[in-house]
Amino acid sequence: MQSIRDRLEIILSRLANRAADEKVFTKLYVEVARAAADASDARSRAGVTLGPLDGAIVSIKDLFDVAGEPTTAGSLMRRTSAPAARDAAVVSRLRQAGAVIIGKTNMTEFAFTAIGDNMHYGTPGNAGDASRIPGGSSSGAGVSVGEGTSDISIGSDTGGSIRIPAALNGVVGFKPTARRVQLTGAFPLSGTLDSIGPLARTVAQCAATDAVMAGEVPIDLAAISLAGLRVGVPRGVLFDETEGEVTAAFEHCLGKIEQAGARMADLVIDDMIAELRTATKRGSIAAMEGAEVHADWLATGASVPVDPHVSGPLSRAAMLPAPVYIRVLRRRGALVAAMDERLASVDVLALPTTPVMAPTIVSMAEDAELRDRVEGLLLRNTQVANQFDLCAISLPMPGMALPAGLMLVARNGHDRRLLRIAAEVERLLGG
Q: What's the half-sphere exposure (Cβ side, CA atoms, 13 Å) at 81?
């Protein structure tokens, strides 16, 4: 059987061969990873294991603290910031579980925007077609798992930043209920909406990683039958402007789930989405909370270039008065409770993760209007889970020329049950 060290060396040599054009990783921990791989192999020879992540090759998004180095969060501005005193909470839990942390992956600046481009560190090409966007903000994470340079990659998700790159790169991406996984040592965008979760090849890998990061004992997901499962399909605004191939793949998946005995029901949530849109008309929660995180340089002006797609919305949000923010949070609280009640009649919601497949990087750079439209579409379906405080997972849909995802969404705190359902759907779809 191939050792962990041998697997690691194969990946490291792949990365060394493209070092001059590396856009997926921003930093590699070559010697630390080798030592972790050797330690895992030694445990294996002794018949000892630290659990399902022992020897897994894991990459982390460039917004997680690693002791002794600045956390750049995809920005030039943070290169000169003080080195982190200690590892982020999730990083130390991963190390304790025997994970081999290979490096940090590229991301969009300050985790803002969903396209996946970065003007400072380059834009990672999609794992399936390097001329296409990776999706963001966990861009390098999606590509790394998709291309096989990590078994698992840790991302963050404020409006879809794990599930969008997972969908576009043909991998699994899990956004847990917010606050299930400790945010300590993760560079923030929005304290209210941020979640930390895994991207991986399988639901089982996501479940094991989520358990470790949440401080739980990872146990195998118990099988669950889809017979009698109640699946809500929120047809309406979340299905507008969906590409034909995405619609066809989604309906095919839905058909298979129904054949397995699940009960389908259309579930209307358009009214709540409209209410939230009205409430956040002047500024989104992510932009307003992000404006607080970045208040200092927004006030004085940045000392180095900042992506205008990031600085623009943050600057506008910084001008909004406090009552606007407080009112949005209060309104959201009421809508979160109302959504929880609405979802009581189903086990999961099912919808396409993104209504579109990955466009080309060139088309996004050349046409500002198209870029804005695509970004809105990429975020539209995923952000519902963040805004209404739910958990969600994206699974690759089979038989597509370009990847897109099937998203399953469940109520707040129903994470383990959602993962069990997703594992069964994955098996059904031939994952």
A: 18
Task: Please answer whether residues 195 and 290 qualify as being in contact, where contact means their C-beta atoms are separated by less than 8 angstroms.
Answer: no
**Closest C-alpha among 317, 326, 312, 311 to residue 288:** 317
CA–CA gap between residue 115 and residue 108 (Å, rounded): 8
Handedness of CA 135, 133, 173, 259 (dihedral sign): positive
Query: Do the Cβ atoms of 110 and 310 come closer than 8 Å?
Result: yes
Domains of the chain, each with CATH number or no CATH? 1-431 (3.90.1300.10)
Residue 431: what pLDDT?
61
At 236-284, the pLDDT tens digits run 999 999 999 999 999 999 999 999 999 999 999 999 999 999 999 999 9
Q: Judge contact between 121 and 74, C-beta under 8 A.
A: yes
Rounded CA separation 431/410 (Å): 21
Which residues are known to be catalytic?
61, 137, 161
* 365 closest CA partner among 122, 169, 165, 162: 122
Q: Give 331's contacts (C-beta < 8 A, 6+ positions apart).
A: 275, 276, 279
> What's the whole-model pTM score?
0.98
In angstroms, the CA 137 to CA 280 distance is: 21
The secondary element (H helix, E strand) that includes residue 263 is strand 263-266
- Rounded CA separation 199/355 (Å): 20
pLDDT digits (tens, 9 = 90+) for 119-164: 999 999 999 999 999 999 999 999 999 999 999 999 999 999 999 9
Burial class (CB in 10 A: 0-12, 13-18, 19+), 336: middle
- State pLDDT tens for residues 386-411: 999 999 999 999 999 999 999 999 99
Per-residue confidence (pLDDT) for residue 379, from 0 to 100: 98
Residue 120 CB: number of other CB atoms within 10 A?
17
Beta strands in 54-138 (DSSP E): 57-61, 100-105
User: What is the tens place of the pLDDT at every residue in 215-236?
Assistant: 999 999 999 999 999 999 999 9
